[in-house]
Design brief:
With 553 residues, the chain is α+β, with helices and mostly antiparallel strands. 58% of the residues lie in helices and 8% in strands. 24% of the residues are buried.
């Protein structure tokens, strides 16, 4: 049944492509490429009147196919160095201009969540959406206490749509791993599972509200980023109420310039926010496309970012944090050998990788990007070359870093739009070097001592008694060290089986020798039934030996 549903979904996707005049996309697939000429024989291509531009048709296809495809377009919308101008312009409309669902449905969802009439909660509620995205849409409302707020409502039926499309992606990923050897290194099934977890997390607005509150605490005293307040009494799994903010969309360059906003400061603060979230707070906003980022222009010389939509956040393990920071610092210092060593130490490439060869490959990819302004650097092209290097050295994709990579691409896209002359390396290097110093210097040692002090305080009183008992057992000769592991258990089992096979082999060999000697005895009648017994014993020994010997050895 699942396979049937997937096939129906594939048919639907192709139908949408046909309906929007993109049949050339279908006929360009490897399977149908030999019959590509058929598109000129299709009757609707003869009578088709004027069509919208291709970029508009592609955007409409993504909208019609649902949230996963819209998310794909959102990610691409900030990569203007990878897209044509018309595609970038159309994909940017996916950030907050997805076709809305009726306001009456939003009202019904809110009333079901609160268990009361909408008028009992809000003094005013605008059923016309302020903005509509792939997972939810937002409405303007006023609380009974007078505060103007934003009400976010999850799209009806969106969970079933996500599960259906993710099932299709999983099906394709499994076939790719089975029939395409290169896909195994990319680990597409793990990426699909992580993508599904991310999308399903976005459906829980209680989780999003908690993430917003955490980010608000992290930047509570900051003048570079503002996070709106969450109204917890009105927040449910399907509904979230937060402070309404006002600002200029970060991609409205003309308006920012009209208000004389310092673009260099704004771009550099975007880089500062990214590295602060990832390394200082270890909790980062992972959906920083222009539809979610605004600028407070009340002080143009000191602009401040305002973030919304906290459905996707990320964090890293301390090991990944340290690894990334060391890699960044090594890159900034052009220490490509250290970069190669870090990749091998983390086992992202095989242990037997030659450091000198890997170092040379990394240098050839990264050296050209330094000492050049951001407008002359394409991270998209850099990633393509790094991918080619990864394939050569069998580097595995790391799914746990997918959100971080996506966020970094978003930050670069924003920086490119705001201030093309931004020197990303000069802005980030001092921050990372300072963070590394805190991790390995005296401050780090004092911090770790403080963190472990309660545990040590609990254990220290018992240490003298434990030490006395160990020394007493050692003096009396009763101290025993017991080690157990799965490897040792397996080794003992293998040794026991080998000993059994050896005994059976010796017994079989001895029986064969006895049988042979008995046959060669000058007067076999003196031995009675001994030759027959020896042959029987030899046969049993050989049979047991064969049964005891494992298959494949």
């Amino acid at each position: 049944m699942n396979l049937v549903r997937m096939l129906l979904r594939l048919i639907h996707i192709n139908t949408v492509l046909f309906r929007n005049g993109l049949d050339e996309v279908i006929l360009a697939t490897r399977l149908l490429r030999p019959i590509r000429f058929v598109q000129y024989l299709l009757p609707w291509n003869w009578v088709r009147s004027h069509q919208a531009p291709r970029s508009v048709r592609i955007r409409r296809v993504l909208e019609e196919l649902g949230p996963i495809f819209v998310k794909f377009g959102q990610i691409l919308s900030v990569r203007r160095d990878l897209l044509s101008e018309d595609l970038a312009r159309e994909f940017s409309k996916l950030q907050d201009s997805v076709p809305p669902f009726p306001g009456s449905e939003a009202r019904a969802i809110i009333e079901a969540a609160y268990g009361e009439k909408l008028e009992d909660t809000f003094a005013d509620f605008d059923e016309t959406p302020l903005a509509s995205a792939s997972i939810a849409q937002v409405h303007v409302a006023t609380l009974k206490t007078g505060e103007e707020v934003i009400v976010k409502v999850v799209r009806p039926g969106i969970r079933a749509t996500i599960l259906r499309d993710v099932a299709l992606m999983r099906f394709i990923a499994e076939r790719a791993e089975r029939y395409w050897p290169e896909a195994r290194r990319l680990r597409p099934r793990e990426l699909v599972e992580e993508f599904q977890a991310t999308l399903l997390d976005e459906l829980d607005l209680m989780r999003e509200a908690a993430s917003a509150s955490q980010l608000r605490r992290n930047f509570d005293s900051s003048d570079v980023l503002y996070i709106p307040e969450i109204y917890w009494p009105y927040t449910r799994r399907e509904v979230m109420v937060m402070e309404r903010i006002r600002g200029v969309s970060v991609d409205d360059i003309d308006e920012l310039n009209r208000q004389n906003v310092d673009m260099q400061v704004l771009a550099e603060r975007g880089v500062e926010i990214f590295f602060t979230q990832v390394f200082s707070h270890n909790f980062f906003h992972a959906d920083m496309h222009p539809g979610n980022i605004f600028v407070d222009t009340s002080d143009p010389s000191n602009p401040r970012y305002v973030a919304v939509d906290f459905g996707i956040v990320g964090s890293l393990s301390p090991r990944d944090q340290r690894y990334l920071a060391e890699n960044f610092v090594a890159f900034f210092n052009r220490d490509y050998r250290r970069v190669a060593e870090l990749h091998i130490e983390s086992e992202w490439v095989p242990r037997d990788t030659r450091v000198d060869q890997f170092e040379s490959a990394i240098r050839s990819v990264c050296e050209p990007i330094f000492e050049r302004p951001l407008k002359e650097i394409s991270f998209g092209h850099l990633l393509v070359r790094l991918f080619q290097t990864a394939r050569r050295f069998n580097m595995e994709v790391q799914p746990q870093l997918a959100l971080l990579q996506k966020t970094l691409l978003n930050v670069e896209g924003l920086g490119r739009q705001l201030y093309p002359e931004l020197d990303l390396w000069r802005t980030a290097k001092p921050f990372l070097e300072g963070w590394m110093q805190k991790q390995i210097g005296g401050q780090a040692m004092i911090r770790e001592l403080k963190r472990h002090a309660p545990r040590w305080g609990e254990l220290l009183p018992s240490l003298p008694t434990l030490g006395f008992e160990v020394l007493s057992q050692a003096r009396a000769g009763t101290l025993r060290v017991q080690a157990e592991s799965q490897d040792l258990v397996g080794l003992r089992t293998d040794l026991r089986r080998a000993a059994q096979r050896l005994v059976m082999a010796i017994a079989a060999a001895a029986s064969l020798i006895c049988a042979a000697l008995s046959l060669g005895w000058p007067d076999a009648t003196m031995l009675g039934p001994l030759p027959v017994v020896c042959w029987v014993l030899a046969g049993i020994g050989v049979t047991l030996f064969a049964l005891a010997w494992p298959h494949g050895e």
